[in-house]
Design goal:
The chain is α/β, with parallel strands linked by helices and about 775 residues long. The longest helix has 18 residues, at about 155-170. The chain is globular and about 75 Å long. It starts with a helix and ends with a helix.
Length: about 775
């Protein structure tokens, strides 16, 4: 069945960020995880009614469906919420606010969804601006009607309406800078929408002309980012729609400073803002660490009083449970009803709704105990692959096997079939801490334990390298489609990912001192040390005075620093160029092109998914373990051939490419002036050992032999045909003392007896010798 082999509907086992925003590629079974989804809807409705921010922890093992649940909420709530997705936050605690703001505005730039579930012709950010514009609009329009009417209004009328809306917002929010409100409503102007969104996201790379066009004096300061985040919640409350902020892939948030900064953010959204629904996705093990580390004050804000819980408050948790037999069948049927498979069946005249699978395959997959969706899909993918390759067998074998009686059906009770204990996180309804129990699962749902049916021959598993290549290429395409360019902080985090992947551990990472001396620093400053050497990597997209402040702090770097900058951030100005050139005299500056930035962003996405166990169930050869996946990434040509990675390697060991004597070598200053006049007469190089190779190529053996008896230098000019017997005793000195000055005359100084020229040879001119004070310094 070659026509079906490429239509395997079970290959996608996880929901990525690209699937989150792409409405056409989402396959969903509403019945699965309906209870957790109902809990999320209740939280959203409570915030909509009361405007009081709430926090929910979505807890589940890798592959339990957390990301799928977040995507369902985005589609089901449509334009009744403002939805933001912020995965994989940076390790720097002080960069969290900048990261949240950038991801929040970037999410709002994705298309809104109407009540029918289709993408609207305007973004979520413009939808918010329309809601703020409504008070100055006389007619009662719906958002789609207002969008259509806005296109027919003249530019001057638009400017006047925006001005009136800004004045109303200033009266309601007097503490908010006018530039913030102006840029927020300027997204309604087609000529300013892109620049206004960049400014609101905290972009530091806008030029003076772009800032002047927006009507703002400077980029958004770091001290104002928290104000803007809090303002979005209040403005969304005026629009009547909650803000859903999803924090996902938090497996690297483990240190107490990171958790403290996360708590500070939650405090601000609860106490200083309103209308937020913060959903925090955590695997079971990571939630246990958070549960211990969170303070009593935060637990009191978001939790429920419970005398048995830590510090007297139980965190609000929504658990993701395994799916049972009926839900398994619904999930399999959903995947087998994809349009491509239905079209192929109709073309072949096949009426079975599960073709190319058989009923016995579905029975094997749905039998046994509860299992997480990703595990079921991985097992189904392998059975589908085996079924679609059986046509490669000779027809007579297939016919003979098909004539055999069908095997007995698999018993429905688990006790009647062989079972394999599988460790699955089971959470009771009492919401207590999950316990890992051995749930009886039939051997059939496990990919490795599935016995092939009689008519199926085992097939070779897919190559892990090819699978990783496909994942990385998909992530690169998704990164290129992003509406917001990566920030300098993102660039620093992806640099860390690349070095930790490509370098054999351990890699020691320490923070630089730029942020300690400059509060408005927009990027990252880190030292990376491995293999006995280290390299400093600084990222910054700032402009004008901010970039000058960064350059002033690194211009004297001693050749071990790499300055990175996204190509969307230009470099201009006389003083800026002078400082940059001073830095480049010893160090390296690299403008990261968009193609390299997309590869780095894709690497971050793939690594984050791997840490959450998204690839553990792949049926590949070799198995998709953490070590094998990282090895496949490490050898991928997209990463190994990055010009950026080559720069890191060269800057990591700058001394290896600098042969020659030390700059303070007095011996070299003595040798160099004597070498110039010695090249012409053949007798002088004999007296000065460092110049012996320069004298004459054929005379080298004869010139080296008498070097042991230093008292007979005049013999050398006449020793062109040296008598062999007279120099046989010079073999031992020839092998030891003269060898070092001949091979490396500069790197290793000659032996002390050879430093003074013989009395029979004229010394170099006295005027060219260094002063006695320097000569004796050696």
């Amino acid at each position: 069945m070659p026509s079906y082999a490429d239509l395997n509907p079970f290959m996608s086992t996880s929901v990525g960020e690209n699937d989150l925003w792409n409405a056409a590629s989402f396959l969903d079974v509403p019945y699965i995880h309906s209870v957790p989804f109902g809990a999320l809807r209740i939280a959203v409705d409570q915030v909509r009614a009361q405007h009081r921010s709430q926090v929910r922890f979505v807890r589940g093992a890798g592959g339990s469906g957390k990301s799928h649940l977040f995507a369902r909420l985005r589609r089901e709530c449509a334009d009744s919420i403002f939805y933001a997705y912020a995965p994989n936050p940076p390790l720097q605690p002080e960069a969290l606010e900048n990261f949240i703001l950038t991801r929040f505005v970037g999410s709002l730039r994705h298309p809104a969804r109407n009540k029918e579930g289709k993408e609207a012709p305007y973004s979520q950010l413009r939808l918010l601006a329309y809601a703020l514009l409504k008070p100055v609009v006389e007619q009662d329009f719906t958002f789609p009607q207002l969008h259509e009417a806005w296109a027919g209004i003249s530019l001057e009328t638009r400017k006047e309406m925006i001005h009136q809306a800004v004045q109303l917002l200033e009266a309601d929010h007097p503490m908010v800078p006018r530039s913030v409100l102006r840029c927020l409503l300027n997204v309604l102007r087609d000529d300013k929408e892109h620049l206004a969104a960049q400014w609101l996201s905290g972009a530091a790379y806008l030029t003076e002309n772009e800032l002047k066009y927006l009507g703002v004096p400077e980029p958004l300061a770091r001290s104002e980012m928290a104000v803007v985040i809090q303002l979005f919640g209040k403005l969304a409350a005026q629009a009547g729609s909650p803000v859903v902020l999803v924090l996902d892939q938090l497996d690297l948030v483990v240190t107490q400073p990171q958790l403290d900064e996360m708590q500070r953010l939650l405090f601000a959204l609860i106490d200083q803002s309103e209308n937020w629904v913060v959903l925090i996705g955590l695997v079971v093990e990571r939630f246990a660490a958070w549960d211990v580390a969170l303070s009593q004050a935060l637990r009191g804000r978001v939790g429920v009083p419970d005398s048995n819980a830590p510090l007297g408050f139980r965190l609000p948790v929504i658990d993701m449970l395994p799916i049972a037999n009926e839900q398994k069948r619904l999930l399999l049927n959903c995947r087998l009803e994809t349009p491509a498979l239905i079209e192929q069946r109709q073309k072949d005249g096949i009426t079975s709704a599960i073709h190319p699978l058989l009923e016995e395959d579905v029975a094997r997959l749905t039998a046994g105990g509860a299992i997480f969706p990703r595990h079921l899909l991985a097992a189904a993918a392998e059975i589908y692959a085996m079924r679609t390759t059986q046509s490669a067998l000779p027809p007579e074998i297939v016919a003979a096997v098909a004539a055999q009686p069908a095997p007995p059906p698999v018993p429905s009770l688990p006790v009647a079939a062989p079972v394999v204990p599988v460790a699955v996180a089971v959470v009771e309804e009492t919401k207590e801490s999950p316990a890992v129990a051995a749930i009886p699962v039939l051997a059939a749902p496990q990919p490795a334990a599935l016995p092939p049916p009689a008519a199926v021959q085992p097939v070779s598993k897919a190559s892990l390298a090819e699978k990783v290549d496909a994942l990385l290429q998909q992530a690169v395409a998704a990164a290129k489609a992003e509406t917001v360019s990566p920030s300098a902080i993102d660039l620093g985090e992806r640099t860390r990912d690349l070095i930790e992947l490509m370098v054999a551990p351990p890699v020691t990472i320490s923070e630089g001192d730029i942020r300690k001396t400059y509060d408005n620093f927009d990027g990252s400053d880190r030292w990376f040390e491995w293999g006995g050497s280290r390299v400093r990597i600084v990222t910054s997209d700032s402009m004008r005075g901010s970039f000058i402040a960064v350059l002033e702090r690194i211009k004297e770097a001693a050749g071990d620093t790499l300055l990175l900058r996204n190509d969307i951030a230009p470099v201009s100005g006389q003083l800026t160029m002078e400082l940059l050139n001073a830095f480049k005299a010893k160090n390296t500056f690299h403008h990261i092109p968009a193609a390299e930035a997309a590869i780095l962003a894709a690497l971050g996405s793939v690594l984050a998914a791997q840490r959450e166990g998204s690839y553990d169930q792949f049926a590949t050869e070799p198995p998709a373990t953490k070590e094998n996946v990282l090895a496949a990434l490490r050898s991928h040509p997209l990463l190994r051939e990055l010009r950026f990675w080559d720069m890191i390697q060269k800057r990591h060991a700058p001394k290896q490419v600098q042969p020659g004597p030390p700059q303070s070598s007095v011996l070299s200053s003595i040798i160099r002036p004597s070498a110039a006049p010695v090249v012409k007469p053949p007798a002088v190089p004999t007296a000065v050992p460092p110049a012996q190779p320069v004298a004459a190529a054929p005379a080298v053996p004869a010139a080296v032999s008498p070097s042991a008896p230093v008292a007979k230098p005049p013999v050398m000019p006449g020793a062109k045909p040296p008598p062999p017997p007279s120099y046989t005793g010079a073999t031992k000195p020839l092998a030891k003392p003269p060898a070092p000055p001949i091979s490396k005359p500069i790197a290793k100084p000659p032996a002390p007896p050879m430093m003074k020229p013989p009395t029979a040879v004229a010394r170099p001119p006295a005027a060219k010798l260094p002063p006695p004070s320097q000569g004796t310094a050696a």
